[in-house]
């Protein structure tokens, strides 16, 4: 890191931490109408922080829900423009009795900042603000152009953001979108996430007779919806773990040898993982490792099954209804609506006789993928090596963050996920915290990243 930047950050570190504590103290819980005034307070606090850092055109912009905070610095002609996304809202703090200290009275203990929203996402977001401040208060300029788009609804699935992005696409236009809102692979082990899984959820309801029937009088002569459900679900997956729905794998990239090598480098101990989960062994799609199955391959999981008598003892009936809730995690270029059409076609083809089947799609979200070889990803790798003293590993996430794909699609720009949190920091749980060493390393990484992005060119 440039010596001017390093000196400035060292000299002002205590002030920066005091500001961060002030930010975390605001109970900006987006899910609660009671905290709507706190949401506005957090947005306005953040807008003031952007202005103090030297950003321009700072505004608190209205949406259908909680506001978006915008600011920019656009004085690097010919250089790339980076749009920094984050969120100022936090999860509810319940259960309060499990917190060692009050969730909105942040404290520093053992080099960690404790408080709701510390790691998700206030400290990570604030690394970007302080990076801009350090550059503008020392060198007087930034290597690249920057814009900030900080929402207040991430913890409630960003209902207002897609429409906001569509309406503000010209203002938000950028060459890269940078997000810091998750955990690295492990402590001291920085990582770059280049893939997120999408989601297709649906409910399956099977109807048989108009009411439950006596199994002695009707069993064997009338279709049993519970049996039909089992048959239908079993038809969706082969013994090798491969999903047997025609066309399901369309759009799935074959893993390259480089990607598979990166998974092997993570060196997950399957036996240890099985022991921690208290299962006899790990299973899944044949030919893939546990990490590949849970991050880079699509899935179809039965989340719940219902139907028939569930009380104590035996009630010998032929139930009139049965059903299941199912979710599919999607990868690469799979489209949730196309997947749903293929599932419906499969159900129509394999429906057992004597029952009717109703299918209702309940969730949809597109997956996100960017090549690890993309120049902006490689620039991030160099920046992590400088900030953490170690090359990052490349990972995919098994989870789904649909708004990432929306950003990439609407703004037509690659998304670079540069996370500085850790897996064990109790995100969404009591005693959430953030390691302040990673606050310093995160800023150092971003200082280098803007330089690397400049070198990468537009």
What does it look like?
The protein is built from 15 helices and 18 strands. The protein is 37% helix and 21% strand. It has helices spanning 3-11, 13-25, 36-53, 118-138, 161-167, 169-172, 215-218, 225-234, 257-265, 270-277, 290-295, 336-350, 375-388, 402-411, 436-456, and strands at residues 56-61, 68-73, 81-87, 107-109, 112-114, 145-151, 176-179, 191-196, 198-207, 213-214, 301-307, 317-318, 321-330, 356-365, 368-369, 393-397, 415-418, 433-435. It is α+β, with helices and mostly antiparallel strands. The strands form 4 sheets. Strands 1, 2, 3, 6, 7, 8, 15, 16 and 17 form a 9-stranded mixed β-sheet that branches. Strands 11-13-9-14 form a 4-stranded antiparallel β-sheet. A hairpin with a 2-residue loop joins strand 4 (107-109) and strand 5 (112-114).
Structural class per helix/strand content? alpha+beta
Number of helices: 15
> How many individual β-strands?
18
* Span of the ends, CA to CA: 23 Å
Q: Low-confidence parts lasting 5 or more residues at pLDDT below 50?
A: none
Estimated radius of gyration: 25 Å
Report mean pLDDT, rounded to a whole number.
Answer: 95
Q: What kind of assembly state do the chains in view correspond to?
A: single chain
Task: Please indicate the percent range of residues in DSSP E strands (runs of 2 or more).
Answer: 15-25%
Give the overall form: elongated
Helix-residue proportion: 25-40%
Instruction: Summarize the biggest pleated sheet.
Output: 9 strands, mixed
